[in-house]
Specification:
CATH superfamily of the largest domain: Butyryl-CoA Dehydrogenase, subunit A, domain 3
Number of domains: 3
Number of strands: 7
Radius of gyration: 21 Å
Oligomer: single chain
CATH class of the largest domain: Mainly Alpha
Largest sheet: 7 strands, mixed
CATH topology of the largest domain: Butyryl-CoA Dehydrogenase, subunit A, domain 3
Structural class: alpha+beta
Helix content: 40-55%
Length: about 400
């Protein structure tokens, strides 16, 4: 079912791309993705791709999800980023206790969530759950969500850390502060979430220890292979894929522009006839292809293990993180090469190439794209050393 319906979502989203492309400047100026764009993506079935079938979801293959994200980000970087981050949350909610899933989807299977996983707030153990306080930044798409997922380190009465969990809160339990004013990904509305001493019941939180082991309460009802794969693989690629999409969008914008551009620096000839311009195109295309093909290979292999109900091999988990962070770097290299060779007119406000360049670099600074941290994980594994305690795998 997932593959066939996934193809219908690809087709439906494909029809939306011209409109998303036309709205890219509007999205940037408003600092938030237009409600009409989110509505259109929802009607196309996008936000149901990774949602459990028992709640009207499609349980599609992750590669299908990433393929659609890449398409969206190739039309508008900010819309692609929000779509990816918000679109991956149904997958995580499927891992929560059933009571938590029911609260979110029981009355409305179209309910959406935003997130901020960095544990910048305080979570204290209390009877029946936790009490949460603090400020969380960079909650992309929060204006289009009625729930939020927040990361928090749990402390005991003495203030010592005892767990790292994700907490699920309804909009009535938090405030959104409009602080998002940036040079890239301006349209993502990645504002702050503020929580003041809110009680979160046990069924609305999930330990990262369970997530890392791929053994979670929600699997009791959501038993599909999709829900037996690592968070570190699924979420990290949900961050890299939009950047690959932005590089893809920049590539097409660059090629279309250069086909007819005449360069004064090239004796008034068409740039398309310049062998150096041709070589740069080839190099950029190769970088983008390499990033995408590695993602496809890794996630296909990951799902094969999940379908066979086999444990996910640690070398594969490490390779996925290695290739994910390298994929972001390859996409950035391609965008830089294209931007540097687009000519002075590409600097004008409103042109696609400069917007993709800024958006891609903004996506690059996400914590999960820290190259040294991810590459060190892989290197440790190759030398037979165990992953670091805080490794996101």
């Amino acid at each position: 079912m997932g593959e066939k319906v996934g193809q219908s979502v690809i087709a439906a989203v494909g029809e939306l791309l011209p409109v998303l492309r036309e709205r890219a400047q509007e999205t940037e100026d408003a600092r938030v993705v237009p409600a009409d764009s989110i509505k259109a993506l929802a009607e196309a079935g996008f936000f149901r791709l990774l949602q459990p079938a028992r709640y009207g979801g499609l349980e599609a293959d992750p590669v299908t999800f990433y393929e659609v994200v890449r398409m969206i980000a190739g039309a508008c970087g900010s819309t692609g980023w929000v779509a990816s981050v918000v679109g991956v949350h149904p997958w995580q909610l499927a891992l929560f206790p059933v009571a938590g899933q029911e609260e979110v989807w029981g009355s409305d299977t179209n309910t959406r969530m935003s997130s901020s996983y960095a544990p910048t707030g305080r979570a204290q153990l209390t009877e029946g759950g936790h009490r949460l306080t603090g400020r969380w930044s960079f909650s992309s798409g929060c204006n289009h969500a009625s729930w939020v997922l927040l990361g928090g380190i749990v402390t005991n009465d003495e203030g010592a850390p005892v767990d790292f969990r994700t907490f699920l809160l309804p909009a009535s339990d938090y405030e959104i502060e409009d602080v998002w004013d940036t040079v890239g990904l301006r349209g993502t509305g990645s504002n702050d979430i503020v929580v003041s001493g809110v009680f979160v019941p046990e069924h609305r939180s999930l330990s990262f220890a369970d997530v890392t082991k791929c053994v979670c309460p929600g699997q009791a009802v959501n038993d599909a292979p999709l829900y037996r794969i690592p968070f570190g693989s699924v979420f990290s690629n949900a961050i890299t894929t939009p950047v690959i999409g932005m590089a893809t969008g920049a590539y097409h914008a660059h090629v279309d522009y250069q086909r007819t551009r005449v360069s004064a620096a090239y004796a008034g000839h068409k740039v398309a006839e310049d062998p150096f311009a041709q070589a740069r195109i080839a190099e950029a295309a190769a970088e983008i292809d390499a990033a995408w093909l590695a993602l496809e290979r890794n996630m296909t292999e990951l799902m094969a293990h999940a379908r066979a109900r086999e444990p996910i091999p640690m070398p594969l988990r490490l390779r996925i993180r290695r290739d994910q962070v390298r994929g972001t770097g390859q996409a950035i290299s391609a965008v830089d090469l294209l931007f540097e060779n687009s000519g002075g007119r590409a600097l004008r406000t409103g042109t696609p190439i400069q917007r993709f360049w800024r958006d891609a670099h903004a996506g690059r600074v996400h914590a999960i794209n820290d190259p040294e941290r991810a590459l060190t994980m892989f290197g440790r594994g190759e030398f037979g050393l165990p992953p670091a305690a805080d490794a996101m795998l």
